[in-house]
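Something for you to look into today, if you have time. Just paste the record in under my message, thanks.
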Amino acid sequence: MDLELLKAIILGVVQGLTEFLPISSSGHLVIGSRLLNFQEQGIAFDVFVHLGTLLAVILVFRREILCMIQAPLAAMNGSADQESHRYLLWDGYVVAATLPAVVVGLLLKDSIESIFTSTSLVYSMLAVTGVLMLLARSIPEGSKALNLPRGVAMGCAQALAIMPGLSRSGSTIFTGMALGVNREVVARFSFIMSIPAILGAVVLQVNDLLQNPPSVDSFIQIGSGLVASAVSGYFAIILLLDIIRRNRLHWFGYYCLAVSAAGFIFA
C-alpha cells in the first residue's frame, strides 16, 4: 500500500474516533499530522474527513433527525402530537446552541489556522479535557429536562471547543451533565448539535477549497480518509453512548492527561 494512502487512512480513523470520543479531534489531528509528516493533508482532506464524520452521525441518529425534520411540517398542518412537539423544541434548541459557534467562527476565522499550529496549546487543552472527564464521574445522574438555556450553555461549551485539544463532545456533555440533564439525553443532543457545527466548519473552508482544489492524484487519499472517518466515527458514537450509560467517562480523562503529559515531556 502506498505510504501516503496509509497515512490518509490513519488520519481518517483518528478524525472519526476523536470527533466523537471526548479526546479532541483537532488536537489529535495536529499531533498525528506532525508525527506522520502527512504531506497530502490540506484544506481538501480536512473538508472531506469532516464530511465523513457528518455522515456517521447522520447514520446513527437517522430516526431522530428524520423526526426533527418532520416536526415543523406536522406543526404547520396541525397534526403534531406530543413526540412531534418534543422534536420541534429540539429543532429550536439546536439552532440556539449553534449560534455561539457561528459567532466565534466568524470572528476568529482568520485566527483559527494560527492556533492550530501550536502543539503546546494542544497539550494544555488536552489536560483541561482530561480534568473535565475525571470530574464527570462525580456528577450524579440528572433528571432535569433539556431546555433552551441549558441547550445554549452546551452551545457555548461547543464554541469554546474551537481550541485544539479541548474536546467538543467532552465539553458539551460535561456541561449538560453539570446542569442536571440526564447523561444519555445530553449525549444524544451533543451528537445532533454537532451536525450544524461540522457543516459550518466545512462551509468556512469551501472558499479556500475552491481556490486551492485538490490534485487528481490526491483524490484516492482524500476518498480513503473520508471512508475511514465515516466508519470509525460510526463505531465511536455507538461506543461512547454505551460508556456514558455506564458513567465511565473518566477513562478518557486518564488518557487525555497521559497524552498531555507525554507531549510536554517529549515534545
